[in-house]
Amino acid sequence: MMREVVIATKNKGKALEFEQMFQPFQIQVKTLLDLPEFPEIEETGATFEENAIIKAESVMKETKAMVMADDSGLVIDALDGRPGVYSARYAGPEKDDEANIQKVLRELEGVPLSKRTARFYCALALAIPGRETITVNGTCEGFITFEKKGANGFGYDPIFFVQGYGRTMAELLPNEKNKISHRAEALAKMRTILEQLERESVL
């Protein structure tokens, strides 16, 4: 019986979300914080799915354990899908949230509200030794504002106006965000798959 999963992240907040998802299955959750010697994984994929698979399979090969990885970012229609897979390092390798936001706002100067449609996208990959890697995705639709609003969240949250909520992602309370975010949608889909795997006695 496989009773351990490694989450391919060093982000404590993200790890907590995954931990909660695995709770009903009584599976012990570890992260890359528990494996400090693990080298940085190069994300060379052209899509979020490819990057999530690269991360999950790289860690699985080393640990021989079940591994879950995610890759997510912001997709802006007026910028032909940018920043996309480069969301975290859009303004440079420093992964500076403020610099990334300012670059996006500069590139959208003069673009009317109706053309500023965007979505947050999350791809999740589950790699299990001896089985084909499973992927799911989740999205959250909205548009890019003209200025920052809100102090919650991180990344592009202050300039992402959530469709149907009348506020930016950074103005939502954490429990509100966790209900409607792209990661929440992807996690819900993955939970259904885990339940199926448990019924098949894979977990």
- Basic shape: globular
Report the end-to-end length measured between terminal Cα atoms: 6 Å
Work out the count of structural domains: 1
The helicity comes to 25-40%
Show unreliable segments: none
Any idea of the CATH class?
Alpha Beta
Number of strands: 7
Strand order of the largest sheet: 2-1-3-4-5-6-7
Mind explaining what this structure looks like?
By secondary structure, the protein is an alpha/beta fold. The chain has one domain: Alpha-Beta Complex (Maf protein). It has 5 helices and 7 strands. Strands 2-1-3-4-5-6-7 form a 7-stranded mixed β-sheet, sandwiched between helices. The mean pLDDT is about 95.
What structural keywords apply?
Maf protein, 203 residues, 5 helices, alpha/beta
SSE order and pairing:
Layout: E1 4-7, H1 12-22, E2 28-31, H2 48-63, E3 66-76, H3 97-107, E4 117-127, E5 134-144, E6 160-162, E7 167-168, H4 174-180, H5 182-199
Parallel strand pairs: 1-2, 1-3
Antiparallel strand pairs: 3-4, 4-5, 5-6, 6-7
